[in-house]
Write a structure and sequence with these properties.
- By secondary structure, the chain is an alpha/beta fold.
- The chain has 12 helices and 11 strands.
- The protein has one domain: Phosphatidylinositol (PI) phosphodiesterase (TIM Barrel, Alpha-Beta Barrel), CATH 3.20.20.
- Helix content is 40%, strand content 14%.
- Strands 1, 2, 3, 6, 7, 8, 9, 10 and 11 form a 9-stranded mixed sheet that branches. It has a two-stranded antiparallel sheet with strand order 4-5.
Length: 323
């Protein structure tokens, strides 16, 4: 009796494994492929923070002149209810003023500093022309007006219901549901975004990334529907190399062991291929040199997010196999 039970157990287990492997390789037997309006290889992080004043209209314009496929930007809300494009809530790093955006009216916001440190290129600083018109914070609505059909990736930086509502209203006003991706690593924020407007393309939150990994290694991923359309994650191995050159870098709050673990578990070409077959795009960030670009595309990433749009453009031109 015991041997029969054991045989049945292994037969069921074997059947489950074979079925999981089959549907992992051919997910469209179960899931209808998501049909997105765009596919992005070249993504300009904050408009290209290494080549222009980050998150400004001049940065977005120049990135598009270089041929970028997508603009990545961040949003906050001012005291008088304007949705402003900025990565930081507190303006000390970017302007030298120890002020929070939520405590300022839009017209009272200071200019960006003439020289800005790069969060993802430790020790490097962008030095621009210093012209006031290039250092002004821009409104999300103005970006939508100027670039009506350009794919835009929006990081909702804070858990603020009014901010989410206003961004959703702007997306709807300018008919941008199919050309916009939004969300945040914070699962609460991302859930609120989806509840507010499920027609907009959605990022995986950090919690959902962990869930994705658990599904993959349990064999359940092929059977589970996913509402998200974009997996956007960092490439851990590059953070290890940057830590060697700048061990005190502020954007490296985690230990090397954690980075190696994430690199081992998540950076899988088979996973990215599975997601691609389901119509889910994968973007790796923030990559700034040829070795990093090459590794991302070799892993099967759909696109690369960079601070240096001209570098990525040159790389893609010199390596057409990745275009």
């Amino acid at each position: 009796m015991c041997s029969i039970v054991i045989m049945m157990f292994f037969a069921i287990l074997g059947g489950y494994v074979l079925t999981s492997v089959l549907f992992f390789k051919y997910p469209n037997f179960i899931h209808k492929r998501k049909q997105l309006k765009f596919k992005c290889r070249h993504i300009s992080h904050r408009g290209g923070a290494g080549e222009n004043y980050e998150n400004t209209m001049i940065a977005f314009q120049r990135a598009l002149e270089l041929g970028t496929d997508m603009l990545e930007l961040d949003c906050h809300i001012t005291r008088d209810g304007h949705v402003v494009v900025s990565h930081d809530h507190n303006l000390m790093r970017s302007t030298g003023s120890d002020s929070d955006i939520s405590q300022l009216n839009y017209n009272d916001m200071p200019l960006l500093k003439p020289e800005l440190p790069l969060d993802f290129d430790p020790g490097k600083t962008f030095v621009g022309s210093g012209k006031p018109e290039e250092r002004r914070f821009t409104l999300l609505e103005d970006v939508f007006k100027k670039f009506p059909e350009v794919p835009i990736n929006i990081d909702i930086k804070v858990d603020n219901d009014l901010l989410i509502k206003k961004v959703s209203n702007l997306i709807t006003k300018y008919n941008r549901e199919e050309y916009t991706v939004w969300g945040n690593f914070n699962d609460i924020v991302t859930r609120k975004c989806y509840a507010e407007n499920p027609r907009v393309n959605l990022l995986f939150s950090m919690r959902q990334v962990v869930y994705l990994v658990l599904l993959m290694y349990s064999g359940l991923l092929p059977f589970v529907p996913l509402k998200e359309t974009h997996l956007e994650v960092f490439l851990p191995s590059i953070y290890l190399s940057r830590r060697k050159t700048n061990p005190n870098a502020a954007f490296l709050p985690f230990h090397s062991f954690l980075a190696r673990t994430v690199d081992c578990l998540l950076m899988k070409k088979s996973l990215f291929e599975h997601l691609s077959k389901r119509g889910i795009q994968t973007y790796l960030w923030v990559l700034n040199d040829d070795d990093e670009f090459r590794k991302a595309f070799e892993l099967g990433a759909t696109g690369v997010m960079t601070d240096y749009p001209s570098r990525l453009k040159r790389f893609l031109m010199e390596n057409p196999q990745y275009q």
